[in-house]
Structure to design on (674 residues):
């Protein structure tokens, strides 16, 4: 398996990316192609005694920043490290791409360089998130703010195919439609129109799910328009951050609390690990012709190592081919009707 | 101040409601009208030694359940405890209503019994929520799944008027538009159309706010369509619940953790109090002709007592009159243009 890694994406590039890639090569025996400024990569690797064994470098001098418009990946920045990575993927030089760079640019580049799977209306960005139970996929989380019912049904199929490979569950992944209540008649126009389509989709559709039950792990694939999916994702992140910060504050507020905090630290650490998103490598871009993984912008070495593992598993799973097959079948069914 | 309390709404009716009302009468010196089955109320009060001093009972034998359709408050259940409470308010027999019953029914009854303020497109349900900083208002949180830009602007004005009375801040409440990013050009059609309207609204509009920053207290009034507002509200609740449950589990996982947990308990308790929503009495229904408060369905006595306090303060603030005045002024301005 050969994973193409954008060495200049995210807050901690390139050092943490090189570390993570070296960890992944050792741990999973995969090959890595790094894209980015070759001289800088070699220098940082040398200064930090990171072995580049099993890694190839494809030079790209340009870098996209968060200030650059996503579209510029197709024009002004068409030779940046992310664009080069996606082009290598499109040309079949590697099996998957991992980047922690701008989400908008990755979405744009994924859609127009790696290209949409035939029949897919719009690719979706789908993070794998921790829950009290098993990890779940949220699809879409921001690629498409305004959605049509057919798009949500496609998200459900793509997410279900991915999850059935990566986190198999008897009976198939439980697909839930994010809604304001669990009753069949809840929601706005979009949800009311999507519900019957999902019911007839042949998926393991468990009906509407409320945001309140999502962190508990009520569904394996939570289907949403990109706007409310984004609100769910970021509210979870913001609430965990706020609570953890306050917990720290509470623990430091007196000597008694400080001593207690020292004692509960191991329990807290394992909780933090359970709720950490870095385990699952970030988000996957579904609906394009090859696996593209969006790692968290603030990922450290462990996060990149996980993302490379997820990318390998995703590439090995054949999920992309299965989505292609489904879209082809769907198209001929629609034509036959 | 005379607060009308639906004695048969919510999971803990009528016992916790009677307790909470008695607490409020003692603590704030307000008068209370209880609506519901008089015989049951007197019996429960007697069995639990709850004084009904300062309270009047208006008999209503019928009760709405969560299974009843919201519209039935206007027809089949027009004599239920909630409908009777709202009718008393509409007739000026009290200054505000508190109910922990069905949200849909309260919204329906509020809109058609208490009636919309002239010029208001749609009343909104707006919870007051805890943040790391000061409490904030989320408007709308589910009354209107599909919204038009003009509705969001009205929500912003109504929320701003309410918050400037209840939680004054120099320069006026900071109004933020819930969005997927902070840049001016973010969002779907609704947000893109609403942004310029809010910019020209004369409100203290701070721009787009991300869900990630909302729990930290980035804005005093968070404006959203009812669907994504509902997702934000319930994700916060679900995430706090999930974390607290896991924290408990982590603390009980070993003797060392148990001892530590005993020591940090006071710190945890004050954190729990800080993040508790019951302090702020629940949600307010804005855009109707008199103050209506939706208490949490699972409220206990303390929650009802807070809700009655909030109802008194809301009624005393003159916020409803100010919203009426604003809508009247707005209408004549629009006509003059």
């Amino acid at each position: 398996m050969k994973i193409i890694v954008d060495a200049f994406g995210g807050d901690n590039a390139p050092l943490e990316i090189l570390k993570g890639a070296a960890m992944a090569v050792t741990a999973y025996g995969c090959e890595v192609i790094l894209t980015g400024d070759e001289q800088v990569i070699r220098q940082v690797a040398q200064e930090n005694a990171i072995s580049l064994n099993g890694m190839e470098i494809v030079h790209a001098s340009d870098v996209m920043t968060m200030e650059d418009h996503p579209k510029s990946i197709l024009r002004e920045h068409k030779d940046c490290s992310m664009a080069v990575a996606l082009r290598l993927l499109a040309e079949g030089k590697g099996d998957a791409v991992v980047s922690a760079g701008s989400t908008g640019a990755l979405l744009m580049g994924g859609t127009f360089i790696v290209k949409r799977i035939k029949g897919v209306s719009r690719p979706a960005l789908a993070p794998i998130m921790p829950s009290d139970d098993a990890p779940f996929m949220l699809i879409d989380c921001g690629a498409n703010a305004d959605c049509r019912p057919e798009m949500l049904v496609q998200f459900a199929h793509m997410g279900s195919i991915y999850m059935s490979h990566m986190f198999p569950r008897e009976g198939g992944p439980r697909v839930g439609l994010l809604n304001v209540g669990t009753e069949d008649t809840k929601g706005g126009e979009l949800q009311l129109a999507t519900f019957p389509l999902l019911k007839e989709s042949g998926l393991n559709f468990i009906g509407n799910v409320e945001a309140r039950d999502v962190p508990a792990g009520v569904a394996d694939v939570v289907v949403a328009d990109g706007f409310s999916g984004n609100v769910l994702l970021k509210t979870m992140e913001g609430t965990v951050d706020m609570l953890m910060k306050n917990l720290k504050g509470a623990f430091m507020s007196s000597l008694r609390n400080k001593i207690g905090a020292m004692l509960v630290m191991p329990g807290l650490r394992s909780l933090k690990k359970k709720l950490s998103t870095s385990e699952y490598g970030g988000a996957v871009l579904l609906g394009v012709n090859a696996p593209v993984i969006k790692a968290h912008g603030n990922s450290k070495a462990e996060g990149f190592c996980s993302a490379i593992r997820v990318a390998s598993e995703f590439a090995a799973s054949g999920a992309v081919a299965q989505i292609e097959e489904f879209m082809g079948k769907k198209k001929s069914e629609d034509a036959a009707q």
